[in-house]
Amino acid sequence: MNIFSKLFKRELKLFFSNSVAVFIFFAAPIGYALMVGSTYMQGKLTNLEVIVVDADNTPLSNKMIDALDDNQYLDVAEVQYLQKEVEQKVVENDYVAAIYIPDEFEGNILQKRQPEVNVELNGSNMVSGNYASSGIQKVLGTLNAGIEIESMKKQGLPEATAKTQFQPFNVTVNRFYNPANNYLQFIWPGIMGAVMQQVILIVMALSFAMEFENESFRKLVKLSDSPTFLIFIKSLPIMVLTFLMWGLVYYGFYPLFKVMLPAAMLSNWILVFLFTLANVFLGILVSICFPSQLKATEILMAISMPSFILSGFTWPLNGMPEWVVTYVSNLIPLTHFLKAYRKLELMGASLGNVMQQFWVLIIMCVVLFVLSYFALQYRIRRHHKT
């Protein structure tokens, strides 16, 4: 117990003596949480600017323009009556779409000639383009239905009959999870998971590598030469501090930015524990195998940086090549953490629904610990021989 207390205090002292590690560990999660929450607080895009080319300039085309401007996603920033320099204006003003109302639009509708309204979306930003497309399709679809029903009424059909003939069946779409289509609810888990992983790996890269570089490993081994105990004592302070940081994120930033907390918080804390432990053991393994702080940090950053993309969070795993999923994505703790976390937070899942991801993380923890154990045992034996 005396040795444990002495080593625990030593590890805390080592950690807090490294100003860079302390800054990264505390500032990165807090800074990213504030930045991401503030950036995506609105949750969805509104008032996206579009340009309308109205070659008809009739009451019906004006009605269409007003309807587009009334949509929550759209803002008709400019209307012109000639198809001139439209593409240049889209580039200069970052319009998300150009909508072309053809000449004789109203007349052709009255004569049942089915004129065509062309919409050109600005695909340089897929998120704003998708929101704009949704708004434009809703407006044009509603207007199209209204015109058809009015035409039937003029032919003598009652309004109720005209509606049933135009629309023989109803379509109701319910969004089970994230019904408000809030982008913050979607992006928050991925960003915070990636940040916490990166922070843990950076700090753990220094754990044993710093001992080797400073030649203090011999002092550490004098206190205890048990690989299990040394791994435990190196892990414990970071595990405690990481849980405190997760607590700040959950109970500080989640309410601040109105992000939905997972329904099954106990299952969520178990998931956080396994995810943190897997990253801690990964960091320790690399730190033992590469006794240079710079080299260990570089290797772990090479693992951490692409993990957000390869985890399947922003781009589904079934859209990736099979070899990427098998040999890269499935070997990253973040992949299984985010898959389970999304179910727990957005879908209200229980422990039973995420047991597959839990077992994968448990196996990762065991494998990484065993590899770390034998790597450290080799270092200790080598030290004793010299």
From TrEMBL:
The chain crosses the membrane at residues 12-35, 186-208, 229-249, 269-290, 299-317, 358-376. GO terms for molecular function: ABC-type transporter activity. It is a multi-pass membrane protein. PROSITE patterns: ABC_TM2. Keywords: Cell membrane, Membrane, Transmembrane, Transmembrane helix, Transport. Coiled coil: none annotated. Its main location: membrane. GO terms for cellular component: plasma membrane. It is found in: Cell membrane. Residues 149-379 form the ABC transmembrane type-2 domain. Belongs to the ABC-2 integral membrane protein family. PANTHER family: ABC TRANSPORTER PERMEASE, MEMBRANE COMPONENT OF ABC TRANSPORTER YHHJ-RELATED. This is ABC transporter permease. It comes from Fodinibius halophilus. The lineage of its organism: Bacteria, Pseudomonadati, Balneolota, Balneolia, Balneolales.
